[in-house]
Amino acid sequence: MRALRRFSVRAQLPAALAPLQDLATNLRWTWHGPTQDLFASVDEAAWRASGGDPVRLLGEVSPTRLSELAADAGFVGRVGEIADDLREYLSGPRWYQGREGLPAGVGYFSMEFGVSEVLPNYSGGLGILAGDHLKAASDLGVPLIAVGLLYRSGYFRQSLSLDGWQQETYPALDPQGLPLHLLADSGGAPILVHVAMPEGRVLRARVWVASVGRVPLLLLDADIEDNDADLRSITDRLYGGDAEHRIRQEILVGIGGVRAVRAYCQVTGHAAPEVFHTNEGHAGFLGLERMRELVTSAGLDIDQALAAVRAGTVFTTHTPVPAGIDRFPLGLVQHYFSGDLLPGIETDRVLALGREPDPDMFNMAHMGLRLAQRSNGVSQLHGEVSRGMFSSLWGGFDAPEVPIGSVTNGVHGPTWTAREIAGMTAGAAAAGAGPELFGVSDALLWEMRGTLRSRLVNEVRRRVRASWLERGASEPELGWTERIFDPGVLTIGFARRVPTYKRLTLMLRDPERLKALLLDPERPVQLVIAGKSHPADESGKRLIQQMVHFADDPAVRHRIVFLPDYDMSMARYLYWGCDVWLNNPLRPLEACGTSGMKSALNGGLNLSVRDGWWDELYDGRNGWAIPTADGVDDPDRRDDIEANALYDLLTSQVAPLFYDRGADGVPDRWTALVRHTLATLSPKVQASRMVMDYVNDWYAPAAAAARVVASDGYAGAKELANFRARLDAAWPSVRVAEVDASGAADTPVLGAPMTVRATVDLGGLAATDVLVQAVVGRADDHDELTGTVVEPMTHVGGSGGADRFEATMPLPHAGVLGYTVRVLPANELLASPVELGKVVLPA
Ligand SMILES: *Cc1c(COP(=O)(O)O)cnc(C)c1O
Fold first, then answer.
1. How confident is the model at residue 779 (pLDDT cuts 50, 70, 90)?
2. Closest Cα to atom 4, ligand 1: which residue?
3. How many CB atoms lie within 10 A of CB 778?
């Protein structure tokens, strides 16, 4: 008989073991080896059977075993020690504590969170990054409150048909069996968040709380009886469904999410966030709800509320791929926002915030940028690409001036580093091994890499066998799976989602050449490949099928495998065990990429196109850069060129280095690269570095700006709104009337002083309302300026439509120069004079 529904019941632990409950439900165990060891020692077999899930383990271990452990003084002692350690971790001061000027709380909103495979609430890189952000914030003591949705079926599980076609299943999760507890009021009643839907309906959601070390992760769940059936399904799946399904999810996470944060702070006394971080556009409606709060309770008008909200908002954009940007038909947004959803916020104002060049579409990234005073991309190159991509929001400025910065992503070291490596580097550091781990011998490094490679080989065999059983093969046919892969062969990994730009099948461009590499009698390579295609992406599924067909060939199947169901539980084996991590996206479409960072933490060498993070951190000694044919427009030709470059690198550099062994069997030149990677790249790719960057350069200034606009009854917000209104009225009349220069014309020598003068009609604005700048640079044949130097000009007199400004500066270049003058808004409450996208140049 099949059960209609499943539910979990937690075991009653003997009093002596009670702390195990906290150790199991706080997700700190996911990056804390001693806690994992403790759970494994409860019952090795049950631990393995649970897939390393303490909540499941405690539900399944027998009462006899529990009483046995409760009577074991040694075990009880260890439980006590580790529980004390957790308590100390949760309450003691950390990096953040005692620093000045930082926000008392930060809200971090994301559509997905990949904290652990026991809480499968993510699809790929964006979610894992969010999970790593929380863990690093916890380690550093950043008072973050994270907000997302709890999906009944998470993302799909992937398997393969006999013919290599992706199959999707959606196993339902039971929240009772997950490391979560319900947010409840002081009387113990679950708190429900309410959000108005069109036609007078109400959507209700309960709030589950996951404890990620010190950081609470609030997950909203609409699947409750109080909701109409169609509303219950809002939180059924991640990235499934149509635009309507999606906008409902985004309304819930953004607007319901802020309400959940308020409830959480009220119940727990957690400091209210002073800064809200919107991780990608999906959760951007959070800014509208915060505006509503201010309109309803602080008596601000919409413009004042916007000024107040923007000051304390940070927006991070994560993709330059147009298909990755969230957009809705305008009518759909209108439908949802014209009812009771946000009283006091006029629908037209909402629509204007998401306006884009296509008048029928609402763009969540554009709204994110307009609702945040500070925004960033996720690598230096992605910052640059984003400044170009979104430059239409700052018309009149050259792309380099667009106010979108960058914070390069990082990965959580304690989560992704193999224990052997972490132990070795910590030991070496303690022994004063120096910057390049000089105290660690090549032989030890090589042995360590071999251990990790062997572990991966076992995992590959296990998974290939399981996959074939699912594809319909029978046990007796699968003897060969025990002999695939070889712990001594150069192992290359390629695992990531399968959107077209990541080019899963680039390596198949010349199948014979790939085959020759795999089967080389002296210097073979083996390739492990994994990745899910979005269920609606047929072309992605075709790429997977192509890959699977190639790997199914008995001639090569011992050297190349496609492992279905890429997730965190598989990923760690790949990052630990692969010698080389391959990445060949279509440059510059990879915003950052983080899998290569995780490989590097374990001494894997990256072999990658110089895109995302690799563009800034490749140094010639930590791996290889695959040359790209940037600018070649014919995609086939570009793929040919880049695939050839990849084969050439593998044949002429990667494989020879790996197989060039000394008398002791150690490849010294290879281990030198591994050593250099561990010593110099690991520190730079840490999520702790990323979170410190956010705290210092984004959260702290945002908190300061938010305090300034909020103080004195929101006087700053009112002033800023007033300033913007005056600007809007006056701007069309602002005019640069006259410009001339002296000094330089008579003595055109590099470095000579040049004085620029301008007469400006300020259209009724005060001289202090504007920043007038002289801009000097090289002038090309079309008078376009490059290599510009900008000098603020001083107000030297005049009034009534003829204000005079002047600046003196040294000539910055030899050759043909040009200059101009421009007028920008100036107000100390702006993060930069470019922020409002307003500029006047001479006619
Ligand atoms: C790190 C990771 C990703 C993201 O990898 P990219 O290189 O950014 O594509 C996706 N899925 C899993 C399971 C990961 O661990």
1. very high
2. 125
3. 16
